[in-house]
Amino acid sequence: MTQTPDLPRAAVLVLSYRTSAIVSDLLVSLSRTPSSERLVVSVVDNSVDDVEFDELMSRVAPFQGRFAQLRVTRSPSNGGYATGNNLAFRAVADEVFDWVFVINPDVTVDAGDLLDTVADLDVNRPDVYGFRTLQHGELQSGLARMSLWTGRTSWILHGEEPPSKSHSIVYAAGHCFATSRRTWEQVGGLHEDFFLYCEEAEYALAVELLGGRSLVLEGLSVCHASGISTGSQQGKSALTAYNATRSAAVLLRLHRRLAYHLPVLVVVRSAWAATYAVRGRGSIARAILRGLISGTAGRLGLRSGMGSPS
Predict the structure, then answer these.
(1) Integer angstrom CA distances of residue 56 from 71, 88, 186, 187, 219
(2) Contact 300, 181 (CB under 8 A)
(3) Residue 297: which residues within 8 A CB-CB, separation 6 or more?
(4) 201, 224, 247 — which closes off a domain?
(5) 10 Å Cβ neighbour count for 242?
């Protein structure tokens, strides 16, 4: 890959699952940034639906020519967040760029410029970066935390001190994060053992193995309509409960140094399932238990560029 230090470029990976109606809002905000002509935008449609794909293409068409490259790829199946974003990267891997931004379709750039924000950073540093986010009227730092005991995640507010890492993971939130292309390729992208949830937390752990950190970059701020891209904006569903539980267990198994948290996670999540059952929400209870079974007993894969689980 030829480096272009004077005029660096970035790939923007956008995964759309039945979100064609809002993708254009993200593209509008990106096209208004000063460095838009140096952005390689790669959109993947994960819907596996002809009507949805046609609608996405019609929404994207007006933005052709506003970026260095704008490519839409139709996934043959819905493999989830990690698989879709990895496909988006591969679709533009032949292009020259130094940075990778993963941005959900329910995000818009509120202020700042993508490439200006990373202009002074060393592409050889294996770090991952989050960005200040306005979400439901609350200002978030761009980082999130995950309890290793329960698997529960929460946002870290702007100005809030990140928690101790002894029993939690601090990571750049997955709605909008950046990393150098070199780091993305060293890590091997997002781990495809996850369908939904924990992918960005696992990426942060993989970055730590390279000596990197999860940091907040000032200079770029975004707005996030949380839940639209994952379908969880209406509250917890059985699908959400299943994937969140399964992914938390898979994460602890992938990184063996964290595996001692797994028995506690199983106990806590089983207790949650019992609570939902008592409250008459049997579908949620069953989904949690199925997630535990799949996450603790399912076969784990390896990621290209990552090597064996640590």
Answers:
(1) 12, 15, 32, 30, 30
(2) no
(3) none
(4) 224
(5) 24
Same domain for 82 and 27: yes
Span 125-164, pLDDT tens digits:
999 999 999 998 999 999 999 999 999 999 999 988 877 7
Q: Where are the alpha helices (DSSP H) in 32-180?
A: 50-60, 81-91, 114-118
Same domain, 123 and 268: no
The residue written with tokens 């956008």 in the block is: 14
Q: Report d(CA 43, CA 41) in Å as an integer.
A: 6
Residue 265 lies in domain:
238-297
Q: Are strands 107-112 and 214-224 parallel, antiparallel or unpaired?
A: antiparallel
Q: Model pTM? A: 0.92
3-state secondary structure of 216: strand
Examine residue 139 and state whether it is found in any structural domain, yes or no.
yes
| The two structure tokens encoding residue 155 | 């946002």
